[in-house]
Each structure stands twice: as C-alpha cells, then as structure tokens.
Amino acid sequence: MPNLKQIEDILAQTQCGECGYDGCSPYAEAILNEDIAINRCRPGGELVIKKLAKLLNKPIIRPALPQEKISTANILTSCIGCTLCIQACPTDCITGAPRKLHTVNNYNCSGCKLCVKICPENCIDIIPNPEFSFVENLSQDEKDKWQENRRNEILDLVIKRNNKANKKLKTKKKNIKEASLSEEQLELINKARKKSKDKYSTKNK
Ligand code: SF4
Ligand code: SF4
Ligand code: SF4
C-alpha cells in the first residue's frame, strides 16, 4: 500500500495550489485518503500522472488542466514595493526593498503564480521563462529527466525558504511540514484569494 510520502515525492513541489489544494502535501493526502484524481498537478504534467498511475496502480489519464509553457513572473514598473510578493513566494526568488521596484530571479522562479494572486497592484505578469527556452527542443526522455531535476531544484528552494521563515516564527509550532507553505504564507494567500473573490462577486452583483 503506497504511503503519503511516496505520493508527495512525485508531485511537482511548486506549491502553486493549481490542483485546488493549499500545496502539494494536502493534494497528496486527498489522493491517498479521498481517492481524488491523479491528474490535477498542472506543473507536473504527464510525467507526474504516469508516476502516480504506476505507484497507485491506476490508469494513465489526461491532465485535468491545460499544460503551459515553463513560465516565470515578470514585475512591471508600476510595482509600489509593498513586499507582499516576497513574503508569499515559495522559492524566495523575488528581491526588492520597501517602496522600490522588485525583481524576479527567473532561474529560481517556478511560475507558480502565487505572487500574481497576492499583488495589490496587478503588476506581475507570467511570461515564458527565458532561462528554460531550450527545454522545448529536447526529446521526450530528455524533457522527463529535466523535469525530474527541476522538481528537485524547486523542492530544495522551497525547503530552504521555509526553514528560513520557520526560524523567524517566535513560537515554533510542531507539524510544520518542511515542503509545505508556511502558515504566514498561507494566511497571506488566502487573504488575497478572498479579496479577489469579494471583488469579483461585488462586480457581478
Ligand atoms: S505543484 Fe501545485 S498543482 Fe502540483 S500538487 Fe503541488 S500545489 Fe498542487
Ligand atoms: S516569483 Fe511568483 S511565480 Fe515565481 S516562484 Fe515566486 S511566487 Fe511563484
Ligand atoms: S506585490 Fe506587487 S506591488 Fe507589491 S512589491 Fe510585489 S510586485 Fe510590487
């Protein structure tokens, strides 16, 4: 019987929430305990579906969400330097001083879009990642290998970022999973999601 760690280890680890869960760990739990479909990890694409199907002895199915190019965030000059995106970014790839224009390290950006959801100025675009344009020309096997390595790179960045954030927490809480979003990130992101939901429902009244 596969365990939670085996499932979580296969997921793409960008913590983007595109699967409909607050990160890879909750989605892995839903796959294991609620028999949720194995095709919801968009950044993981077909490779993740194939691996999950093998592990869980399930049929290979088509991705639930359309596949996208390898992307990165791009901050526009209208940035007011509020630093919210820095706090929300799971890979710690945004830099900038308060009230100054922020920038993104493309190599470390997973394209998870969490910064887009939180930015109050709508000044972050998602664009094809120039660091990885070569991937388009790889064979399927090479792409799968690249994706595997990339997943590990992202996971290392997420763990490093969370260790840094957790050290800052005055009261260390037990059960903070090292590769999940930290509580402060989740709180910020949930607030941003609620704000955009409220905005949307007000517009449509
Ligand atoms: S990488 Fe994103 S879509 Fe995939 S499992 Fe993790 S949070 Fe969900
Ligand atoms: S910069 Fe934005 S898209 Fe890139 S990893 Fe950070 S939060 Fe995700
Ligand atoms: S959240 Fe938006 S406005 Fe705030 S620092 Fe980041 S890019 Fe600039």
Characterize the structure shown:
The protein folds into two domains: 4-56, Electron transport complex subunit B, putative Fe-S cluster (3-methyladenine DNA Glycosylase II, Chain A, domain 3, Orthogonal Bundle), CATH 1.10.15; 69-205, Alpha-Beta Plaits, CATH 3.30.70. Helix content is 44%, strand content 7%. The chain is built from seven helices and four strands; from the N terminus they run αααβαββαβαα. The chain has helices at 4-10, 24-34, 45-56, 84-88, 114-118, 140-168, 183-203; strands at residues 71-75, 94-95, 103-104, 124-128. The strands form two sheets. A two-stranded antiparallel sheet has the order 1-4. A two-stranded antiparallel sheet has the order 2-3. It is globular. Residues 199-205 have low confidence and may be disordered. Bound molecules: iron/sulfur cluster (3 copies). The site of one iron/sulfur cluster (SF4) has 15 residues, from α4.
